[in-house]
Design brief:
six-stranded mixed β-sheet; Immunoglobulin-like; 8% helix; elongated; 394 residues; L,D-transpeptidase catalytic domain-like; LD_TPept_cat_dom
């Protein structure tokens, strides 16, 4: 007579137990924010299906977070509407657990909104140093930054993971990868802040989304010592241009900046500024800082270009050189200035590349994604990655 050996480890009944599953918002919850996500906590399995419907039976589109901790509706929920979420979890044995939750959103918030601006437009072509930037007015307090950051989403194709980093005063947050974006990359951004509770007395203002591509790699290197600008494409020098930078009383900032705007024509009106008081029309102007530093055509200083710094902080070029440069650069191209009397202040422009990656990640309010940490191992720890040849060429 043979006796059956007992199963090792957990009993068979335990091995076949269905997964434990909890979902949020809680069933019958009321006054739920319109930014609500359907959260799921699973033990002994994984979420395999989520279906969200509104009070008219229509299905609500949603996407899972990378860690599958929640499903994020693709657009804000409606106010004073009732939603039902059905979540299915499957265990290793194949057994499933289903949980339903029904919740109702609150009325439109009477709290003042924080104004957010997404500096990333759709259907554009940007330079390889383009950071995704979101600005806030008033700034976001430290205690609320993690909640805001969790509602900022970036996808890249091909994948090139990165992270967000906050300017110290909370007025801006940047997203970048350890290395420059590869030419041809598609970047999709969503700033999903509408109705999001921010601190105790504010809410997010809007839900914004955009998808654009990365173009060829162009970089400008400006040296105050030589009074020359080097224009590089795919890491190769294509032209040197004489420049005149800011005079000692109004110096140009040294640091790593990004072209923020391009204007065929614009007017500088500095009346009321400490070192201003003038109004001048300029052509072929490219903004580098919020403080008003531009690269632009300046026919009045051609005699000084290449020899002396005479501007109010801008980079002066001849009219023909400035016009040529406008045809070469893109918003999002890196501009490096060195040798001047003052350093670039963090947050004065899109200064995501003015620090190393190791320093950049310290500004994140959340843990850096594992994928971005893995990518960092193959990237330079300084803000000067190796140029990648452009797919677009020429």
């Amino acid at each position: 007579m043979h006796r059956r050996r007992p199963a090792r480890g957990r009993a068979a009944g335990q091995r076949e137990a269905p997964p434990e599953l909890a979902v949020t918002p809680a069933d019958q919850a009321r006054d739920v924010p319109i930014s609500a996500e359907v959260g799921a906590t699973v033990k002994g399995g994984r979420v395999t299906a989520v279906r969200i419907t509104d009070d008219k039976g229509a299905e609500v589109a949603a996407e899972p977070r990378e860690d599958a901790s929640a499903w994020v509706p693709s657009r804000p929920l409606g106010t004073q509407r009732t939603y039902t979420a059905e979540v299915t979890a499957t265990g290793d044995s194949g057994k499933t657990t289903v949980r339903k939750t029904t919740f109702t959103t609150g009325p439109k918030s009477k709290k003042p909104a924080i104004t957010s601006t997404l500096y990333f437009s759709g259907n554009r072509t940007y330079g390889t140093a383009m950071p995704v930037t979101v600005a806030f007015d008033p700034p976001i307090a430290k205690a609320a930054r993690a909640d805001v950051q969790r509602r900022l989403f970036v996808k890249t194709d091909p994948p090139q993971p990165g992270t967000w980093s906050w300017v110290a005063d909370g007025s801006q947050v940047y997203y970048r990868a350890p290395d420059f974006w590869r030419p041809g990359t598609t970047i999709s951004v969503r700033s999903a802040l509408q109705g999001l509770p921010i601190g105790e007395d504010r809410v997010g203002d809007a839900d914004r989304a955009a998808t654009s591509k990365i173009g060829r790699q162009v970089a400008l290197e400006i040296d105050s010592g030589t009074k020359q600008m080097s224009v590089l494409r795919d890491g190769k020098l294509i032209r040197k241009i004489p420049v005149s930078l800011g005079k000692p009383s109004t110096p140009t900032s040294s640091g790593k900046m990004v072209i923020m705007e391009k204007h065929d024509f614009t007017t500088f009106d500095t009346r009321g500024e400490p070192d201003g008081g003038y109004v001048v029309d300029v052509a072929d102007a490219q903004r580098l800082t919020w403080g008003g530093e531009f690269i632009h055509g300046a026919p009045w200083s051609v005699g000084d270009q290449g020899y002396r710094n005479v501007s109010h902080g801008c980079t002066n070029l001849s009219a023909s050189a400035a016009n040529w440069l406008m045809g070469v650069t893109q918003v999002g191209d890196l501009v490096t200035v060195k040798g001047t009397e003052t350093k670039l202040e963090q947050g004065n422009g899109w200064t995501a590349w003015n620090v190393s990656w190791d320093e950049f990640v310290k500004g994140s309010a959340l843990p850096v994604p594992a994928a971005a940490q893995a990518q960092q191992q193959g990237a330079a720890a300084s803000p000067s990655p190796t140029p990648v040849p452009s797919a677009t060429g020429g």
